[in-house]
Every structure is written in C-alpha cells, then in structure tokens.
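Lab channel / #folding
Pinned by the channel admin:
"Please post every new chain as: sequence first, then the structure tokens as a reply. Keep commentary short and put observations after the output so the thread stays searchable."

First post following the new format, from NK:
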Amino acid sequence: MHSVEIQARSVDEAVRLALEQLGRTEDEVDVEVLVDADPDNDGEALVRVTAHGQASQPETATGYQAAPDTSRPDEEIEQMAKTVVTELLDAMGFDCQVMAVDNPSAIEVAADEPPTVFIDVNGRDLGMLIGRRGENLSQFQYMVNLLVNKRLDTWTRVIVDVEGYRVRREESLIGLANRVARQVARNRKAISLEPMPANERRVVHMALREDPMVVTESSGEAGNRRVTIQPKSKE
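Reply from TO:
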C-alpha cells in the first residue's frame, strides 16, 4: 500500500494514523489535506497521505477506494444518509421529518470537494438539537458522517440542517463578510471577526474569495480561531 485516505478528529491525528497504516515516517510521504477541521469543531478532517514518488489510487484506512470526482451522490447514497439521520433522531426521542434536498447554500460544492448529501430536518422543539451557536448540530453531523461512511465504498460528506438554521446563519455571515469587506476596502485597515467554528470561517472565506479589494486569512488556536479581512495589496 502506497497511499491512504484517513478521516479523524483533526488533521494531525489523521496524518498519524495514516503513517501507522503505511509504516512510514513523515519525511517519506506527501500529505494532502482534503477536508480541514479543528479538533474542537465538527471533526470532519480528511487527509490523503502518499509515499514519495507514488501516484497510485488511494485506499482509506478501512479499505475504501477514493471517491470519484462528482459533487452529487446518487439516490441510494442519499437514502442511506436519510436512514442514518432518522435512526439517530428516533433513538434520541425526536419526532422529525427528514429529507434529502438540493444544495440550499449560496456556496456551490467545489469540483475538488467530496460528493455531498444535504439533509434537512424539520419538526417541533428542535432547539436542543441545534444547541448554542449550532454546537450540538455540529456534533450530530459528525456522528452522521461516521455512520454513513462506514456503510459506503467512497468517502461522502453529509451536511445536516435543522429547520433552516444553517442557511439562515450562512446568509447572516455572508452579509457580515460583505459589510466588513467594504469597510476594510474603504479604510485600508484590517478587521478581525469574532471567533468562529471551521464551517463558519469557510463561509466567510468563500464569500470573499472573488473580492478584488480584500483577502482573508484564519488565525488563532483551538476555539479562538477567527477570520481577518485585510485590504489587498496594490500592485
């Protein structure tokens, strides 16, 4: 085996597991971060580790083949994701409607991202499932991804929303990012946003990636990581 893809709670942990699987040291491999995540957030880190000079099709730690380059899984995978979400919610005592939906986000799934299933959950008294600033929802989504990918041959990402919480939060973040970007461009001074989890920082980065006047970067450690919006250097 020359190459593996490993999912773990953090990039460092995924790399460590991959090195053990390959029986190599870090200076003998190339590491590609496919999905980044912080240890204290939703934990959806995925890395590909390949021995130097090897370009073979990677396998995951459980023998899975790498996912094909497609942004939308087939209906069978979507149904499996719905089943996993429904089973978990039933076990937790929630009475909900679970649906697979088209991408509700204003941000499209990039060509180099894994196939993604979007699940929408609706019902009564679901505030506890969302939690403070979506923390419980992030943990629930992490469990869903673990269970779904144990049943599949290919790595697939599952995004779970509850009564449109993620969509509303995303719209709020995009609006904030654009307002701050205009202020940064006007005053030529960087502004740091409040600490955010990885998925929310990604929304800010994606919202401003085509902005000709500003650039974004993340900094800080653990739960204090935040996005800083800076004026783009004049050439």
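NK: The chain is about 35% helix and 25% strand.
TO: also worth noting, The two ends are 47 Å apart (CA to CA).
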